[in-house]
Specification:
By secondary structure, this protein is mainly beta. The chain has two helices and nine strands; from the N terminus they run βαββββαββββ. The strands form three sheets. Strands 3-2-5-4 form a four-stranded mixed sheet. Strands 1-6-7 form a three-stranded mixed sheet. GO terms for molecular function: 2 iron, 2 sulfur cluster binding.
Amino acid sequence: MELHSETFDPTDFAWRGLTLTSAAAAHIRELTSKQPGLLGVRLGVKTTGCAGFGYVLGTVTQPEKDDLVFERDGAKLYVPLQAMPFIDGTEVDYVREGLNQLFKFNNPKAQNECGCGESFGV
């Protein structure tokens, strides 16, 4: 009988977290400065689209108990713990594309995206 052993590396299961670019941090700070009581932005995921998941953005006035907080230069990004398996390691950017300005997500876990870029699969 031949036994196969796999190696286990605990770092494979450690959260890497999310990062904000300076442009994303600046935009979040701008939003919070214009709305009293606003603490930051929440990034979550929902089942949607042809690829499986979509990003959900919202504002935060009261953190949820399971929120993880990622911060850069005073800008706070809140992420529900249950979203982490889908977006861990993501870089959040804020870009201008033509006349549009929007948050952009560079997600290393995304295996594919739909043609319109609205949803992703892991």
